[in-house]
Amino acid sequence: MIIASNTLPGDSGYVAAAYLVFLAIVLGYVAIMAIRAARLERDVVEIAELVEGRAHE
Amino acid sequence: MYGKGLRPLSLITCVALTGAFALAFFYAPMDADQGISQKIFYVHVPMAIVALGGFVAGGLYSIAHLRTGDRGYDLKSYVAIHLSQILAVGTLITGSIWARASWGHWWVWDEPTLVSFLIVFLLYCCYQPLRFSIEDPERQARYASVFAITAGAFVPLNFLAVRLAQSYTHPRVLGTTDGLPAKMALAFYIAVVAMALLYVTLWKYEMASKHARNRLRSIRRGLGEDIGLTRSASPQ
Amino acid sequence: MRSTVDALLRKELRLELRNREAIPAMLLFSVTTFVVFHFGLQRDSVDGALAAGVLWVTMLFAAMLGANRLFVAETEGGALDGLLLAPIDRTAIYVAKALAFGGFLVAVQLVAVPAFYLLLLGPGGGDAVLGLIAVLALADIGIAVAATLVAGLATQTRSRELLVSLLGLPLLLPVIIGAARATAPLFAAGGAESIPAKWLLVLGLYDLVFGLLAFAVFDFLLED
Fold first, then answer.
1. Which of B31, C178, C179, C223 is surrounded by the fewest CB atoms within 10 Å?
2. CB pairs under 8 A between B and C
3. Is the CB of C197 inside 8 Å of chain B's CB atoms?
4. Residue C30 · residue C121 · CB < 8 Å
5. What is the pTM of this model?
6. By residue range, what is the domain housing residue C12?
């Protein structure tokens, strides 16, 4: 808040902080979902390899 | 298929949210009493409303689950509550910042909405501990549903009790939306709609992800390879 | 339904009389908590809002302590299976438990509230016994109804004791708000004042809503 009051007039630092909290929450959620998506992709690849391996047998 | 329509929905959400915040900053007039810090209102209150709506929606899905015995409803309820918990954290933090900006304290006990919100949040914090301390998946779903219904009914009752307990000392924008100037009200309502759209988008997103994971798991089971799939602590 | 509840209630009371598990522990806890408050607050006597707060916080924590033991016989002794095998309405089990727990609360308060008057309450607070009984009755119904539901919810989990308190405290906050606000004027330093009716109304509403709710959902906790 000290930094914000040096760079922004009046209470705008608080407003910026509030909107940043919102942004951080949404981005954090997206990051977690990205990890899940990566995990999902790895599982799909694994299963695809499994199916291909069986097809060759 | 939860992924259906996710693309247009995401686009609309992006436009609506950007538009709502743009209206809040460039269209809605500056508040006479609070000045710029009143702008927090346009992110804090929509988040709170949507979080509470999500909790209630979770309770409704739980009623459907107990009625039909369909575990799909339990998953829907789980995702709805879990998303609401995330928004609730945001509501508490932004509310605290707003309190600091307008009243000079990080926490004010005579702001009934914020206090009731804290209580509701504390109650919903027990959802995961309760859920995941039950091993049997069928019983887990049932108990989680009973909790979700109870907590959903608790939300309005708690707001009533806390609101009655407060003396109205602070000037407030909250709860008196009918007294808002038309331009402020417009920006506010659009922000609520945008936040609700964001909630629905993320809900569908997570449902699609969970649905895909569960389908994958059953395919692998069908292939006779039950080992190795990454496990995560969420209902099936 | 009626006779089933009767029989189950008699079973609960007989168990408590024989084991003496809940009531003495809750009572001892209440009195000890009053002593703790005496030292914690560094006050010889309390009145008004502070007195109401001390009384209700103690009652709430004592109730949580009792709620922890509420389903112990069922889970540890395996008596629940027997109950479920019997051709009885599941809701009757809930009604009997809640009634029994309400009875425990009243039994505890019969001694704990006089103890509170003796140990902590300042002069001039003891006038409005009837009003206090009304608030106690309404709050006890609410606590019994909600705590029994919470105990049922937590009973099948690994961390039973933890969850009862974690769930019960926020869920019972409206009762504490209502009861503390209603009792504060009774304990006022200058003699008892009248109770604001809206707090009795809040307590009554809570009792009604949670009573109906628990009645509707409790079945699902026992379906096995």
1. C223
2. 87
3. no
4. no
5. 0.85
6. 2-221
